[in-house]
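<context>
A single protein, sequence plus fold
<entry> Chain with its tokenised backbone below
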Amino acid sequence: MSVKGLSTGEISAHLAEVYDAQVSKQTISTITDKVLEGIAEWQNDRYLGLSSEPAGQPLESRSGT
């Protein structure tokens, strides 16, 4: 949701309204930071050709069955 330009406060309010979940702005910020770090690593790995996952192959067909 932060990618859509929502602030941590807006995300917190949305989670409270839709899911009746109380999540602090700090928790949302921490989670967002970790997700963005993971995305950056994934993009870098794929860019460098280090990914072990075949590009463009659906998850269902990766099991070899």
About this structure: The CA atoms of residues 13 and 19 lie 10 Å apart. The two ends are 36 Å apart (CA to CA). DSSP finds two helices and no strands in the chain. The chain has one domain: 2-48.
